Amino acid sequence: MRLHSSHVRAFALSFAAACALAVTPAAAQSPRDPAAAEALFQAAKADAAKGDWDSACAKLRQSQDLDPAPGTAFRLAECEEQRTRIATAWALYVEVEQRLGPDDERRPLVRERIEAIAPRVPYLTLRAAAGAPGDLEVLRDGVTLAKSALGLALPIDPGRHTLTVRAPGRKEQQFVVELKESEKKELEVAPGEVLPPVAPPGSSEGEGSSGMRTAGFIALGVGAAGAVVAGVTGGLLLSRNATLKDECPNNVCTPEGVDIRDNSGGLFVANYVGWGVGIAGVATGTVLLILSRGKEAPKQGRMSFGATPLPGGGAVLMRGSF
After folding, report:
1. Are 95 and 114 spatial neighbours (Cβ–Cβ below 8 Å)?
2. How far apart are CA 18 and CA 112, in angstroms?
3. C-alpha torsion 59→61→63→67, nearest 10
4. pTM of the complete model
5. I want to staple 275 with a disulfide (CB 3.0 to 4.6 A). Which of 2, 19, 230, 265 is the partner?
6. Is residue 98 classed as helix, strand or coil in its secondary structure?
């Protein structure tokens, strides 16, 4: 954000005072990178001379992080004031005053700036609405407020702000509030409506019908496999029966015919079991699919299943229209 040249000149006049303050670092913190902090401070000075307050403030904040000093904080407060972030600037001026000793000759200048800007600071008071849950969480522009802050008039920068209110088992609700300089507002906040209870896994009707449908298709698959076994073994039995007629004329069998006859018992068992499994699987699968369709909304299309015996074997038939 850029301002008129008159604002730039006013800012430049106060820069000398900021430089004087910058010579005394914070006693409670040790410098981390004073060289980089100084480079950022000088770059911020150049940005301020051009009226580029956004860039200047960003560099000053980085400089303060690398080497905290009252002068840098004072300079940053002036920069934020130029960006009309009044509450932020006021808080920085107060921080500078608190870090200066009681006999420091720079305190009158800082106090003067605090008293000049204080009447311009907007205040927003947030209160929990009647009936709001006690475990609600309030975020102001994405930053969580302490519960003790509810009911207090908190300084806030002018402009639009988004408030987000949360609570377990409730929908999130947002409020948008806008304040001007010196304005004071109060707002009652509460989370959204109660969320519906979450059904336990597998309890929904849709899941039940889906599971039944899956079981139906599995049963059909088993039935189809049984029918295939019955068909294959039936074909082998027909082939062996034709061979036996040639090898056992007048019921007198050749050695090969005797061998075929004696070894066909297993095929008979497999054929009977295949037919039993095939018919049972198809019948069970069909019933399950019919029941699962009864739990769903009617759909267009129709599907039918059936087992059809054939000479020496069989087939599983599936017909459908969609």
Report:
1. no
2. 14
3. 180
4. 0.55
5. 230
6. helix
